[in-house]
């Protein structure tokens, strides 16, 4: 061997190499120990910055490439690729482009619409929702998405607040139209998605679409030169009162459309959308995200827990969208064989509880849950890119540089941020719940609401930490832990969340006090075990010499309120407690909940199977807690 070594001596490593190797290993171990999320944070931050730079380039060039522009380009580049699959029928990129052209031509010639006009859209989940939306966008119109669950006075308020020239109504919502038509402003032209109409002065759309040209309208109709110009109105309950039309700009649409890409979705993915398209989650993140990727979307008329996984297998779905309730409904389904035999790899959404998150993963396999936080009208977003159970996202020094936010102390009794003796707000410590506020500036603007300027002003906090600063009050309480993970805690103000929707308590109480036997109604949300959000409960004071008419009460709430806003529980009291600032006292009522063993006041429960309010007995209470009584 020595002779061989003499002929071919092994090269000696420089003396610094072992030291360098040991240093690299040490640095790696230190990074793993002290900064375990460094590389995940860096990858996510680079993605955010990359997309931000692209949007900034649009602004500097004065020519914004909108999501609609991207769709039209894709229709040219991949005309035969499926864009939408609905009830088994495939609609290619070219199909959707051409039908939306027809709709644009109809409204250009028959509707007398011009760039900047507003059109309200009252339709359920169906391809024509997207065709009408895109067709109107090609005319440069602002499209207002109306929540089809909203009824009567609230729906009329929504229509008037966005001041549309035209209201387009789906064929399956003509009953809702009939309710509001007599009181609808006379200057609003109504179009329905049918070939003929029994309504006077209502235009039909389907017949005109069939006769219209597929030629595109001139590009200058919709070309955008300001990234901050309005393109959509999406309604939100916010923290008080009737629904408000949040102004959605090109900037927000572009940011929303980047969500699936940021979580790692690609053009090869097939996205399953069961959430309503009037929500920003389905329209911006779902449809917009599909366009950003050049992917395919499977659209469902309405979420069905029993058909969910069979649809995923049938259409080879790889990405699903969820809200917390959706995951719970899936976990509540009877266990079947082969539940992990699917191709779903990403689930993107918000509001899933820790226990449901774990059960979902155990039962349905290695699906990456991509939880995020972002209000429709907000200017801040968090994304859980690490998969930490329960968290809505992470923050760090660099993220806060680009998206400044803070969690501040909040007075629950006075329902306002706490200010110190000098008048400034104070930040909470890590691990404490605080009100999430995000800085409003040129890079992170707040576009507010259409209509009443007062609603926009009420969402802003001035002079927070120093003179002249301005922050958006998100209305959400959050907690930041010692690893900088963020967790949603609760909502403030006169609102609660149920069935994935925000419920404004004042809107519900306004409907109840219309009854001639109700003196006062105090509406609040109560926790129900194993359910996300809070169920509606109303404490009632009856007028003198009257009695509670449960039949009238049931008829009133189901007629004038969306199903998710109808109070599930009623409590009849003799006297309404008030706070020191003469507001209705809710805290004690919320704590007491709906337990007939603890409450001596009469309690009633909305039994949907009987379509009536029934006495809330101990037996009924136990059935609700055990899950035998469906809410």
UniProtKB/TrEMBL annotation:
Residues 75-395 form the AMP-dependent synthetase/ligase domain. GO terms for cellular component: endoplasmic reticulum membrane; plasma membrane. Its EC number is 6.2.1.3. Gene3D superfamilies: 3.30.300.30, N-terminal domain of ligase-like (3.40.50.12780). It comes from the Eukaryota. It catalyses: a long-chain fatty acid + ATP + CoA = a long-chain fatty acyl-CoA + AMP + diphosphate; a very long-chain fatty acid + ATP + CoA = a very long-chain fatty acyl-CoA + AMP + diphosphate; tetracosanoate + ATP + CoA = tetracosanoyl-CoA + AMP + diphosphate. Coiled coil: none annotated. It is found in: Cell membrane. Keywords: Cell membrane, Fatty acid metabolism, Ligase, Lipid metabolism, Lipid transport, Membrane, Nucleotide-binding, Transmembrane, Transmembrane helix, Transport. One of its GO terms (biological process) is long-chain fatty acid import into cell. InterPro entries: AMP-bd_C (IPR025110), AMP-bd_C_sf (IPR045851), AMP-binding_CS (IPR020845), AMP-dep_synth/lig_dom (IPR000873), ANL_N_sf (IPR042099). Residues 507-583 form the AMP-binding enzyme C-terminal domain. Belongs to the ATP-dependent AMP-binding enzyme family. PANTHER family: LONG-CHAIN FATTY ACID TRANSPORT PROTEIN, LONG-CHAIN FATTY ACID TRANSPORT PROTEIN 6. This is long-chain-fatty-acid--CoA ligase. It comes from Buteo japonicus. The lineage of its organism: Eukaryota, Metazoa, Chordata, Craniata, Vertebrata.
């Amino acid at each position: 061997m020595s002779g061989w070594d003499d002929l071919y001596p092994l090269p000696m490593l420089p003396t610094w190499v072992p030291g360098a190797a040991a240093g690299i290993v040490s640095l790696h171990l230190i990074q793993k120990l002290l900064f375990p999320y460094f590389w995940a944070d860096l990858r996510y931050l680079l993605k955010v910055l990359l997309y931000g730079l692209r949007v900034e380039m649009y602004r500097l060039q004065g020519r914004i490439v909108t999501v609609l522009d991207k769709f039209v380009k894709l229709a040219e580049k991949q005309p035969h690729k499926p864009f939408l699959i609905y009830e088994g029928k495939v609609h290619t990129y070219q199909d959707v482009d051409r039908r939306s052209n027809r709709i644009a031509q109809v409204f250009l010639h028959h509707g007398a619409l011009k760039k900047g006009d507003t059109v309200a859209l009252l339709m359920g989940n169906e391809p024509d929702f997207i065709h009408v939306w895109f067709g109107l966008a090609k005319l440069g119109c602002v499209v207002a998405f109306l929540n089809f669950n909203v009824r009567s006075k609230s729906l009329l308020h929504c229509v008037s607040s966005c001041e549309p020239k035209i209201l387009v109504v789906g064929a399956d919502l003509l009953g809702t139209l009939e309710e509001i038509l007599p009181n609808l402003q006379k200057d609003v032209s109504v179009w329905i998605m049918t070939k003929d109409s029994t309504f006077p002065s209502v235009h039909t759309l389907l017949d005109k679409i069939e006769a219209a040209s597929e030629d595109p309208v001139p590009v200058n109709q919709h070309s955008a030169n300001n990234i901050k110009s309005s393109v959509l109105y999406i309604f939100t309950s916010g923290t008080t009162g009737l629904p408000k039309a949040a102004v959605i700009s090109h900037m927000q649409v572009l940011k929303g459309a980047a969500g699936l890409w940021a979580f790692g979705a690609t053009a090869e993915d097939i996205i399953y959308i069961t959430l309503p398209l009037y929500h920003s989650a389905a329209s911006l993140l779902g449809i917009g995200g599909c366009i950003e990727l050049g992917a395919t979307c499977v659209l469902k008329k309405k979420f069905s827990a029993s058909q969910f996984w069979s649809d995923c297998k049938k259409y080879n779905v790889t990405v699903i969208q969820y809200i917390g309730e959706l995951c719970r409904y899936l976990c509540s389904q009877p266990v079947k064989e082969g539940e992990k035999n699917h191709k779903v790899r990403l689930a993107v959404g918000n509001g899933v509880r820790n226990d449901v998150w774990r059960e979902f993963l155990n039962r349905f396999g290695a699906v990456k849950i991509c939880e995020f936080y972002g209000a429709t009208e907000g200017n801040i977003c968090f994304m859980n890119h690490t998969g930490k159970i329960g968290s809505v996202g992470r923050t760090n020094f660099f993220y806060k540089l680009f998206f400044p936010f803070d969690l501040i102390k909040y007075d629950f009794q006075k329902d306002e941020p706490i200010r110190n003796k000098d008048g400034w707000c104070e930040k909470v410590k890590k691990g404490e719940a605080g009100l999430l506020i995000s800085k409003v500036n040129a890079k992170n603007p707040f576009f507010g609401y259409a209509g009443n300027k007062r609603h926009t002003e009420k969402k802003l906090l001035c002079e927070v930490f120093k003179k002249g600063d301005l922050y958006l009050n998100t209305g959400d309480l959050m907690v930041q832990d010692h690893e900088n993970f963020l967790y949603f805690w609760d909502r403030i103000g006169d609102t609660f969340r149920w069935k994935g929707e925000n419920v404004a308590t004042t809107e519900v109480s306004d409907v109840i006090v219309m009854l001639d036997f109700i003196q006062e109604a105090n509406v609040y949300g109560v926790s129900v075990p194993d359910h996300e959000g809070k169920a509606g409960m109303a404490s009632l004071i009856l007028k003198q010499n009257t009695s509670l008419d449960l039949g009238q009460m049931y008829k009133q709430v189901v007629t004038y309120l969306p199903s998710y806003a109808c109070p599930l529980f009623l409590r009849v009291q003799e006297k309404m407690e008030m706070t020191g600032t003469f507001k209705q006292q809710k805290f004690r009522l919320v704590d007491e909940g709906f337990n007939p063993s603890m409450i001596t006041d009469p309690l009633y429960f909305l039994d949907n199977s009987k379509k009536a309010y029934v006495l809330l007995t101990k037996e009924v209470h136990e059935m609700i807690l055990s899950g035998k009584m469906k809410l």
